[in-house]
Amino acid sequence: xxxxxxxxxxFVVRGVLPYPDLARRIRVRRSAYALxxxxxxxxxxxxxxxxxxxRLALLRLLRLQHDTRRVVQMRQHEAAAQLxxxxxxxxxxxxxxxxxxxxxxxxxxxxxxxxxSLLAFLSHVEMIPDAVIRQAVSALGQPEKLPDVRxxxxxxxxxxxxxxxxxxxxxxYRPASHFFTHATxxxxxxxxxxxxxxxxxxxxxxxxxxxxxxADACVGLLAGAIANSVAAPAELFRQYAMDHAARVLPxxxxxxxxxxxxxxGLGDLLVTLREAREVKAYLSQDGPSIARDExxxxxxxxxxxMIARLDIGDVSPxxxxxxxxxxxxxxxxxxxxxxxxxxxxxxAGGEPQEA
Length: 355
Known about the structure:
- It is built from 16 helices and no strands.
- Helix 11 runs antiparallel to helix 12.
- The protein is mostly helical.
- It has two domains: 232 residues, no CATH class; 84 residues, no CATH class.
């Protein structure tokens, strides 16, 4: 139980506190720019390469990183979120180009597929018929649809044996799209305050610094992958990406945390902390002699009290029950494992460890 609390608490604290990294950011940007522009762009389309498109993606990422930092400093929260989402998509596309054969042909084909739509205004003003536009575009090559971002992440991770791309997609890209880009219920409800009054400015569902850290992590991730592909030093990029990715709070977690802060008063917070300490002491001292179902009842009582103080009136108890069940079982299993480990250390003559 202690480990779960410390892990979650450390994750939130890292996401909220400042992280000065100016000197290293300058080195990363200079090295990444040199990597992106190492070779001149070819004169002929036949000389375009998958690596060349990955380098272009990195060059665009560097600009997105710069612009994201600027709008965050200007406190333009909506613009920062949109730019960070674009940075994730650009990073995933760059990685996809590195790990997908003939990515350049697919990118070119997708451009041809979009061309008739981009030129549709000519037919709307009756300048050139739509059929003529499509005929002209078809002469340039075979249109082809690029995979969606989710499919790209799956392809990247299948080639690398990692889960970095899918984590970026699930943890940040999809929530950012849901809260900021698309006209969803959640996006619209951000203009309704807790007291049911309308708000001109939407509620903030992201920590202010998160978009910057996300753009930083994307630059390091793609630059490191490109460096590996050309046998260039990549450790600076890799560590930079890891350090900044560890400080990215997903929108859902940030929104939930802000809601807890608004709802819980100082007294409620103190009561919650006191109950948590009492349950920890109960598990550590009295737990071994008490049946698991009795310990489970005590834990459920604590969680029920926390939910009641949060007053989440618009969430059905049926929706909360699976979450509470998981937390209770995880806490009990974690404590049982810690207790068994302490018994093993004692029987081996080691010092008992605090749970």
